[in-house]
Design goal:
With about 240 residues, the protein is an alpha/beta fold. The chain has a domain at about 10-100 and about 170-245: Rossmann fold. The protein has 7 helices and 10 strands. The protein has helices at about 50-60, 80-90, 110-120, 125-135, 155-165, 185-200, 235-245; strands spanning about 10-20, 25-35, 40-45, 65-70, 75, 95, 170-175, 205, 220-225, 225-230. It has a 6-stranded mixed beta sheet, with helices on both faces. The chain has a 4-stranded antiparallel beta sheet with strand order 2-1-4-5. β7, α6 and β8 (about 205) form a beta-alpha-beta unit. α3 (about 110-120) packs across α4 (about 125-135), α3 runs parallel beside α5 and α5 (about 155-165) packs parallel to α6 (about 185-200). The longest helix is centred in the last third of the chain and has 17 residues, at about 185-200. It is globular. Bound molecules: adenosine-5'-triphosphate. Adenosine-5'-triphosphate binds near residues 19, 48, 50 and 53. The site of adenosine-5'-triphosphate has 12 residues, from β1, β2 and α1. One of its GO terms (molecular function) is transmembrane transporter activity.
Length: about 240
């Protein structure tokens, strides 16, 4: 398979994922090709069962495609031996999931620093400053020493966003990061997320059911039945898409 261009942080070519159950095979993702540049924030949308989460899991190197290839920073991730893939994922990819998986007995600051400890083996003063900086940017300066259970849903989501960015990954993936939030908080969270992705020149992908959140993205990719159905990258088109929903 042809090597990917270094210009794109994420590149996929004809990616498919097949699930077999008994006699039937579901093509959960069916021939998806996409290219995402540094500093681009993508909204991945589509009806339930259209393959969004499966696609995200393949981009995160958590699931191996049945067909096709995913390149991150020009590296074909299915070609990496398992141990290298784990290290690659830890260094290059950040995640925010709906159930944000914060460690309950660590403080907000410790939860974010943990990613740096895992990556670097120890915490430098620069690391500590970086974790604090992101939490302040996300409006959590008064919550650094709180435990996750003492936070609201929106505050926990913001900690999860800080954690997904802190170790300087190339790619940041978010699966329904605003699912548990009211509209006003959801807007705030996605706006800060978009700003950080742009400022830090990451490739960001957010899966969302709430099309209104796409007002902060640079491109909308809509999946239907495992395939890319619609792609919009003009601001006016995106706003019209949101208003027609
Ligand atoms: N582990 C699995 N085994 C078998 N089928 C699966 C598995 N995971 C997903 N599927 C099927 O693959 C298809 C795509 O699922 P996926 O979760 O990726 O969709 P989605 O767009 O994220 O849906 P939702 O918006 O409801 O979260 C669905 O038909 C689903 O039933």
């Amino acid at each position: 398979m042809a090597a990917a261009s270094k210009k794109f942080v994420i590149e996929t070519q004809d990616v498919a994922k097949l699930y077999k159950s008994g006699e039937t095979t579901v093509r959960a993702v069916d021939g998806v090709s996409m290219r995402i540049q540094p500093g681009e924030f993508i909204g991945l949308v589509g009806p339930s069962g259209s393959g969004k989460t499966t696609m995200l899991a393949m981009l995160a190197a958590l699931l191996t495609p049945s067909e096709g290839e995913v390149w991150i920073d020009g590296t074909a991730i299915s070609q990496l031996p398992e141990a290298e893939r784990v290290r690659f994922r830890r260094e290059r990819i950040g995640f925010t999931f709906q159930s944000n998986n914060l460690v309950p007995y660590l403080t907000v600051l410790e939860n974010v620093q943990l990613m740096l400890q895992l990556k670097n083996g120890r915490l430098s003063s620069i690391d500590k400053e970086r974790a604090r900086y992101l939490l302040v940017r996300l409006g959590l300066e008064n919550r650094l020493n709180s435990l996750p259970q003492q936070l609201s849903g929106g505050q926990r989501q913001r900690v999860a966003i800080a954690r997904s960015l802190v170790h300087g990954p190339s790619v940041v993936l978010a699966d329904e990061p605003t699912a548990s939030l009211d509209t006003e908080r959801a807007y705030q969270v996605v706006e800060i997320f978009a700003n950080l992705i742009h400022e830090e020149n990451k490739a960001g992908i957010m899966v969302t059911h709430d099309l209104r959140m796409c007002q902060y993205v640079d491109r909308v990719i809509q999946m239907v039945d495992g395939k890319v159905d619609t792609e919009l990258n003009q601001r006016e088109e995106i706003l019209e898409f949101i208003s027609c929903a």
